[in-house]
Amino acid sequence: MEKIPFITKEKAEEICKTYPTPFHIYDERGIRENARRVKQAFAWNKGFREYFAVKATPNPFILKILQEEGCGVDCSSLTELEMSDACGFSGSDIMFSSNVTPAEDYRLAYKLGAYINLDDFTHIDYLEQLTGIPETICCRFNAGGKFTISTHIMDSPQDAKYGMTRDQMFEAFRVLQKKGAKRFGIHSFLASNTVTNEYYPTLARQMFQLAVDLKNETGADIRFINLSGGVGVAYRPDQTPNDILAIGEGVRKVYEEILTPNGLGDVAIFTEMGRFMLAPYGALVTRVLHKKHIYKEYVGCDACAANLMRPAMYGSYHHITVLGKEHEPCTYKCDVTGGLCENNDKFAIDRMLPPTEIGDLIYIHDTGAHGFSMGYNYNGKLRSAELLYKEDGTVQLIRRAETPADYFATFDFCGIMDKYLNK
Question: Is pTM, for the whole model, over 0.90?
Answer without folding.
Answer: yes
